[in-house]
UniProtKB/TrEMBL annotation:
Keywords for the protein's UniProt record, in alphabetical order: Cell shape, Cell wall biogenesis/degradation, Peptidoglycan synthesis, Signal, Transferase
Pathway annotation from the record: Cell wall biogenesis; peptidoglycan biosynthesis
Taxonomic source organism: Thermohahella caldifontis
GO molecular function annotation: carboxypeptidase activity; transferase activity
Stated name of the protein: L,D-transpeptidase family protein
Domain L,D-TPase catalytic: from-to ranges: 48-186
């Protein structure tokens, strides 16, 4: 049911762009009768950008400037503002690259984000702090006990600065996002 809701919501985001309408991509509206054909087209579109909008708690897979998928996310315990240093529990903001992946992560699969970049290191250096690193897009912890634990993670920010998805969403992102894909993390 959650997967279908995400797909319908993603379709609602993409329909205005596909139809050339001037409506905002984030405006929600009803799916049309052409939903299966539209979904099939979106399912095949190559992903050329990952966009994270922190205040929306959404990760978008983009193709040619059009969102083809959208997923609910959790962020670091201190979600507002750009990551400045190791241990601040913030999720960085800016442009990075998905540069490697870990199929044996302590979280269900993980994709590494190339934080810190040159600007991040310079900012941290000016403050005399370590910028941190190992920022990932990942699924849930492998150590979760049951459905109650999973349900709690859906509606809270709980990472140390990473971007967390459900395992189902992470499986799709893992399969669709190749290493070398740019990621844009917005406030």
């Amino acid at each position: 049911m959650l997967k279908r809701a995400v797909r319908v919501w993603t379709l609602c985001l993409a329909l205005p762009a596909l139809a050339g309408a001037g409506e905002s991509l984030v405006q929600r509206h009803e799916a049309t009768a052409g939903e299966p054909a539209q979904l099939a087209m979106l399912d095949q579109a190559p992903v050329d950008l990952v966009r994270v909008v922190k205040h929306e708690r959404i990760l978008y897979l983009m193709s040619g400037g059009v969102p083809v998928r959208a997923y609910a996310i959790a962020l670091g315990d201190q979600p507002e503002g750009h990551k400045l240093q190791e241990g601040d529990e913030r999720t960085p903001e800016g442009r990075y690259i998905i540069d490697w992946r870990n199929p044996n992560s302590q979280f269900y699969r993980s994709l590494h984000i190339s934080y810190p970049n040159e600007d991040d290191r310079a900012r941290a250096g000016a403050l005399g702090v370590d910028p941190g690193g190992m920022i990932m897009i990942h699924g849930w912890p492998n150590s979760l006990g049951g459905e109650e634990d999973i349900a709690r993670l859906l509606y809270t920010d709980w990472t140390n600065g990473c971007i967390a998805l459900t395992n189902t969403a992470m499986k799709e992102v893992w399969e669709r996002v190749p290493d070398g894909t740019p990621i844009e993390i917005l406030p």
